[in-house]
């Protein structure tokens, strides 16, 4: 893949249309009309993280992303824990996305097209089959599908933004959303937390390292471009949504109808046809998102299989398609097996999405924090042992990783304190899910210790290390 294909794959993971329609209104509820500023601040933090993250690609030939980087900086025990936590996080996110995709598809078919109203899981099953087939082949095929879906999403979002900007809204264009008083008018902590979580997926660039034309330059460029694009798109879209109803009335309007506010404004400024198209694209957005998640999960499985941590069969590459096809098949089986209990229990797909996505978001915040710390430690150690081999500037190896570690540490604390809000559940459910999350990380630690004692040759390979 080239830079453009990689950026589009990452954007598909983030599902920008879904973020703009579903997440932006809730960010307005939490952070008031200062929501656009929250996205700008979150973008700045993620960009600072991306400096150290991207610099690692010059020194780390391993494609394991969180798994490889955390191993390199914090050691094999922490690295394998991160590998297990990564699979756990992306699996939950894929389950959440697949469930909501089935729910959205059924709603579109039954309410818009006048078709039959069937249980959501039948549509989810069809989505699972399609994603499994595409995931089996070379990533270029998936990239083309993702690119097409992404371009359609972006056209709708940008079209709405331009229409509102040209009109000016009922109160005219105002930059009040970008003032300090607006930024601090709501719950700044919750606003920043949800803004940062909106960027999830950008870190997936590193997992495709072995499938890019120029790994070092492509991964670094794609990471920065993806973060900048998402940040500016979300900030402008939040600003235009607020403008579309009037700055003074925005908070009340969003609180009154958070699920319909975007569609109502889209109809008013662009037209009913655009709203119908957006409802179709919500379905394709979820398809692209789940496909992207499948690809990322597959490559984590491939990395762990290549190292021998998981069955080495997972590390096989298809002789013709050059894809990690065994890992892809394994991911398809794992997702199906994990989804069945929810289906049999009659789970509500909306509740399922909220809780699983919240847990996944928390787990990825933990991984981002560990990675930022790992980058800092890695370069400090490398500079001490092999100073001549570190030609990157202190900004990239010390300052940026330090700033991002502090910033992500604050985000982690906010996520921990507001975990019940993130999952939209009870305190008892929150405690249970917290225990499960930390248990997965701990299971990775224990497994690494066992390998160190009984299978040292596997232990040496943890994190795609050379020995």
What would you say this structure looks like, in words?
- This protein is an all-alpha fold and 467 residues long.
- It has a single domain, classed as Amino acid/polyamine transporter I, CATH 1.20.1740.
- It is built from 19 helices and no strands.
- The longest helix is centred in the N-terminal third of the chain and has 37 residues, at 76-112.
- The model has no long low-confidence stretch (mean pLDDT 87).
Largest sheet: none
Global structural class: mainly alpha
Mean pLDDT: 87
**Whole-number count of domains:** 1
CATH names the topology as: Amino acid/polyamine transporter I
What is the C-alpha radius of gyration, as a whole number of Å? 22 Å
Give the topology string: H per helix, E per strand: HHHHHHHHHHHHHHHHHHH
Number of helices: 19
Portion of residues in beta strands equals: under 5%
CATH architecture grouping:
Up-down Bundle
CATH top level is Mainly Alpha
Number of strands: 0
Question: What share of the residues lie within helices?
Answer: over 70%
> Mind telling me the CATH superfamily name?
Amino acid/polyamine transporter I
Shape: globular
- Cα(first) to Cα(last) distance is 29 Å
How is the topology of this model organized?
Blueprint: H1 3-14, H2 16-31, H3 35-59, H4 66-74, H5 76-112, H6 120-136, H7 139-167, H8 180-183, H9 188-197, H10 215-245, H11 250-256, H12 261-269, H13 272-307, H14 325-344, H15 349-385, H16 394-417, H17 419-423, H18 427-454, H19 456-461
Helix pairs in contact: 1-7, 1-10, 1-13, 2-9, 2-10, 2-11, 3-9, 3-10, 3-15, 3-16, 4-5, 4-15, 5-6, 5-13, 5-15, 5-18, 6-13, 6-14, 7-10, 7-13, 9-16, 12-13, 13-14, 15-16
